[in-house]
Amino acid sequence: MFNFYIFQLCDPVHKKRELPNLFLTWVFYDQDVSYTPVKAAKTSTEFNSSSVYRVVVNDEFMEYLEEVRDTVN
What we know:
With about 70 residues, this protein is mainly beta.
């Protein structure tokens, strides 16, 4: 099992944008899209969110961890 945890997003330019709510999405390995709960956008938004993935640790998965950089959107 692989646990992915997002605690907090710091956005120093938040006051320059009008974002009432915010959520983050990502795709990890061969899994479906994951996302955080929707939160009120602030300069520092706490998500306290985690996703647990069942993966087979093999050469393919290890290569993924070494080569791919996931982006949280």
